[in-house]
Every structure is written in structure tokens, then in C-alpha cells.
Design a protein that fits this description.
- The protein has about 375 residues and is an alpha+beta fold.
- The chain has 2 domains: about 1-190 and about 370-375, Ribosomal Protein S5, domain 2 (2-Layer Sandwich), CATH 3.30.230.10; about 195-365, GHMP kinase, C-terminal domain (Alpha-Beta Plaits), CATH 3.30.70.
- Helix content is about 40%, strand content about 20%.
- The protein has a 6-stranded mixed sheet with strand order 5-4-6-3-1-13, sandwiched between helices. Strands 10-11-9-12 form a 4-stranded antiparallel sheet. Strands 2-7-8 form a 3-stranded antiparallel sheet, sandwiched between helices.
- Bound molecules: adenosine-5'-diphosphate and magnesium ion.
- Magnesium ion binds near residues 121, 124 and 167.
- Magnesium ion binds near residues 121, 123, 124 and 167.
């Protein structure tokens, strides 16, 4: 990172910051419904080498961005002004300024092992790494949750993606060995020990290679549908509906909104149930909950795709305790909970199934809950 930074900017960075991608164990699309989620940070990180500048210029370069250095003026940052990948880091600087923080320019060089567009939240990793870097470069003294909110504001207000705050909270606040229980309405987060290996299990991530594009309007339409359902039901958010309310709410809604409500309400219950199992040291009990979560996303929320369904079905047929698509949907990655001894054969079966279906080979790796964003140099 230092070598590359010196090569690009002709000086040494002031420091290097890291922020991880995430997989969400359970609680999908619940964040913008004021509900619950349970992500873990993955070992893949986005690194940012950064150097403070006193002339108000913001220069951006990414090893993955594959273009020249983007050169911006911090005072000129306005939503819509940057349309490339640079919107994510520039958005963070814009969001800090909007929040009234006294910040100036910087030179930033980005390099990442988080696959982009794979449902592993490379966008939040990028935002959080930049937010943590700026926090230190300008001595802002903000804590991890505040930096997550700044990062979400960057993605919503500057990059134009109406995401909830789950990804940014995961990247900023997760810790090694634990899943992060998020209660979005309460604004609280709590570490819940998650150690599949202690039960001889492992959590596999299988990237289908199908690129989702959350900016394409589908995500916004789902969010709008959930918000409309809440209005029609006279509640602040779908968080306020309990599973017992479902039969009566169905009569109050247009047919197309009923399955959306069904998913959100049952998904929140799945998060709560998962947390009780983890607190009682029963990791294996998450298996059927994950699979039920996938069925809900596939049949009710309708955001799975053939490739993700094939991974889930093949995994379950080869001994997985549970499997589900993770992330915003329409492709991306699947998580699989499986006995360590069966993981290899299961992976081979998924790869073979993809070959038979004529799909490109999926990318597989095991993850354990890793550290959230931090300064590393
Ligand atoms: P996800 O967050 O699931 O990976 P998104 O569509 O939300 O998918 O974000 C992916 C986008 O984030 C990329 O298209 C790119 O614009 C930006 N991005 C993420 N990581 C990097 C990186 N290391 N360098 C440049 N841009 C990145
Ligand atoms: Mg993203």
C-alpha cells in the first residue's frame, strides 16, 4: 500500500485504515423497516492509505478502479457531481462536511480483497475505510456507529443508493468471534458470540458470480413497497407488525404488498430466534432458520435468482444444515452452514452443479467472524 501510494502521489501516506466486507447471517431487508439484523465481518478488507492535504483537494485512486486519479475540490462536492466509483469515498467526505465537521482534503489510495457486487458489501467497506481514515486525519473523535451513519449518508445522499444502515454498521462495528445484533430502531448493537468451529461446523460463502446492481431501481421499489405497506397498516414501520398480526394485515393490503410484509415480519422473528440459539450455544440450530430465510426471500420477497437457488438446493442435498442467499439480492453470494467434514464435498457438488447448468464456476471460501474497521498503520 505504501509503495503504491508513493508511486501515485509522490509522498508517504499518514496511515493505513482497513474496513471489512460482511455477510449477514439473517435479517435481510429488515434494516430499512426499523428491524433486526445479524451480520458478521468477513476477513476480506478494503484498505485505504491516506494523507491529509491542506489545499482542499481530494484525490482518489483505487487499484480496482482501473482509471486515473480522480481530482476533486472538497468545497465543490455535490450529489451527482461524481458518477464513478469515486462517489463512495467522495460521498463520505461530503457527508462529513454536511454534518458540520471541519474537514479538508486528502490523497487516498484504495486496494481491496472484498469482491465488488458480490453481496459482500464492498461499497460499505470502502465508505467505512475512508470514514475511519478521515476521522483520524482530522481528529474528529467520532465513534464507530457515528462513522457508520456518515457512510450510509454517503451511499444514500451522494452515491444515490437508498440502502439501510446494516452494511455500514457491520463493517464499522463487528468484532472477531461475534455476530452483531443490530436493532435499527433502538439504534443499538450488541456482540453475540458466534463460533461455528466450536461445534465442528463451518460457514461457507459461495459467490455465484451473478452481479447485482442495487442502483437499478429494484431495491428502491422494494423499499417503497415496504414503506407503503406500513403506511396502509397505520404503523411507523413493518417492525411494528408481529407474526400473529399477519392474517389480519393481509386483508388490509393490496395483494402485491402482502408477501413483502410476510417476509419482513417473519424475518425479524428469525433474527430474534437465531440470537436465542447463539446465546444458548446452539449454532447448528441456525441451519433451518437460514433455509427458511432463503425460502422467504425466494418466494415472498422474490429477490433470489436461479444461480442462488441452485447453490442452496445443492448444498441442502449434500448435507448442509442450512443455506441462504445473503445481501440485497438478485445474485451475489450464498452462505452455507455445514459440518467441517462435509464442506469440501459440498463445495465440489455445487461447482459440478454449476458446470452442468452451464454457469461460470462459483467462488467458494470459508469465513469466521473477523474484525471491524480499524487503523492498521
Ligand atoms: P457490494 O457492496 O455488494 O459489493 P455495490 O453495488 O453496493 O455492491 O457496490 C459496488 C461498487 O462499489 C463498485 O461498483 C464500485 O463502484 C465501488 N467499490 C467497491 N469497492 C471498490 C474498490 N476497492 N475500488 C473502487 N470501487 C469500489
Ligand atoms: Mg453495497
Amino acid at each position: 500500500m505504501k509503495e503504491a501510494f508513493r508511486h501515485i502521489y509522490g509522498a508517504s501516506p499518514d496511515g493505513i485504515w482497513a474496513a471489512p466486507g460482511r455477510v449477514n447471517l439473517i435479517g435481510e431487508h429488515t434494516d430499512y423497516n426499523d428491524g433486526f439484523a445479524l451480520p458478521i465481518a468477513i476477513p476480506q478488507n478494503t484498505l485505504v492509505a491516506a494523507r491529509r492535504r491542506e489545499d482542499g483537494r481530494l484525490r482518489l485512486h483505487s487499484h480496482q478502479g482501473d482509471g486515473p486519479v480522480i481530482d476533486l475540490d472538497v468545497d465543490d462536492l455535490t450529489p451527482g457531481a461524481v458518477t464513478t466509483w469515486g462517489a463512495y469515498p467522495a460521498g463520505v467526505v461530503w457527508a462529513l462536511r454536511e454534518a458540520g465537521h471541519r474537514i479538508g482534503g486528502a490523497d487516498l489510495h484504495v486496494d481491496s480483497t472484498v469482491p465488488t457486487g458480490a453481496g459482500l458489501s464492498s461499497s460499505a467497506a470502502l465508505e467505512c475505510a475512508v470514514a475511519f481514515a478521515y476521522n483520524d486525519l482530522y481528529g474528529l473523535g467520532l465513534g464507530a456507529p457515528a462513522l457508520a451513519l456518515i457512510s450510509q449518508r454517503a451511499e444514500n445522499g451522494f452515491a444515490g443508493v437508498p440502502c439501510g444502515v446494516m452494511d455500514q454498521m457491520a463493517s464499522a462495528c463487528c468484532t472477531t468471534g461475534a455476530a452483531l445484533h443490530l436493532d435499527i430502531r433502538a439504534g443499538t448493537h450488541e456482540q453475540v458470540p458466534f463460533a461455528p468451529e466450536s461445534e465442528g461446523l463451518c460457514l461457507l460463502v459461495i459467490d455465484t458470480g451473478v452481479k447485482h446492481d442495487l442502483g437499478d431501481g429494484a431495491y428502491a421499489a422494494l423499499r417503497a413497497g415496504c414503506e407503503r405497506a406500513a403506511r396502509l397498516l397505520g404503523v411507523a414501520a413493518l417492525r411494528d407488525i408481529s407474526p400473529a398480526d399477519l392474517p389480519s394485515t393481509a386483508r388490509m393490503l393490496p395483494a402485491r404488498l402482502v408477501p413483502l410484509v410476510q417476509h419482513i415480519v417473519t424475518e425479524n422473528a428469525r433474527v430474534t430466534e437465531s440470537i436465542s440459539h447463539l446465546r444458548a450455544g446452539r449454532v447448528a440450530a441456525l441451519g433451518p432458520i437460514l433455509s427458511a430465510g432463503h425460502a422467504s426471500l425466494r418466494d415472498d420477497f422474490r429477490i433470489s435468482c436461479d444461480e442462488s437457488d441452485l447453490v442452496v438446493d445443492t448444498a441442502l442435498a449434500h448435507g448442509a444444515l442450512g443455506a441462504r442467499m445473503t445481501g440485497g439480492g438478485f445474485g451475489g453470494s450464498v452462505i452455507v452452514l455445514v459440518d467441517e467434514g462435509r464442506a469440501q464435498a459440498l463445495g465440489a457438488a455445487v461447482t459440478a452443479a454449476f458446470r452442468s447448468a452451464g454457469y461460470l464456476a462459483p467462488h467458494l471460501f470459508a469465513v469466521s467472524p473477523a474484525s471491524g474497521a480499524r487503523r492498521i498503520e
